[in-house]
Amino acid sequence: DLAQEAFLRLDGSKAWPTPGAELAYLRRTVVNLSHDHFRRRLVVRRHARATVENAGDLTGPAALDRSQQARVAAAVRALPRRQRDCVVLRYYSGLTDAEVAEVLDVGIGTVKTSIARARARLARELRDLK
């Protein structure tokens, strides 16, 4: 995927590399894209880990006891990666759907679909907590 993206960027580049430098341009683009990709994954993982661990900070009448909080956290961790990332960033971190889409580098429709599927799965798995 990164190599394909590099070729697309080369093709769409306004400033075409000097003749003979195309390969160097492609290599540098692939390196930059891979750095961006792994940096984004690291940010999501750190953010997700911190917010799921702090999910027990709920207070008030809707607060869950410790065992219920552990079940919710386990159910969130068991979600597929994209669904888990969307749920954690949206609900635990308080980002908007557009911000989640930007962080994960996906479309907003993908975020909405992932959240809907995650909510349906969590509702099935945690229906007895209501």
What does this structure look like?
The chain is an all-alpha fold and 130 residues long. Helix content is 72%, strand content 0%. The chain has six helices and no strands. It has helices at residues 2-12, 22-53, 66-77, 81-92, 97-104, 108-125. The mean pLDDT is 79.
| General form | elongated
Mean pLDDT, as a whole number? 79
- The whole-angstrom Rg is 20 Å
Order of SSEs: HHHHHH
- Helix segment count? 6
Compute the separation of the termini in Å: 43 Å
Helix-residue proportion: over 70%
Strand content: under 5%
Low-confidence stretches: none
Number of strands: 0
Keywords:
130 residues, mainly alpha, 6 helices, elongated
What's the SSE blueprint?
Blueprint: H1 2-12, H2 22-53, H3 66-77, H4 81-92, H5 97-104, H6 108-125
Give the gist of this structure.
This protein has about 130 residues and is mainly alpha-helical. The protein has helices at about 1-10, 20-55, 65-75, 80-90, 95-105, 110-125.
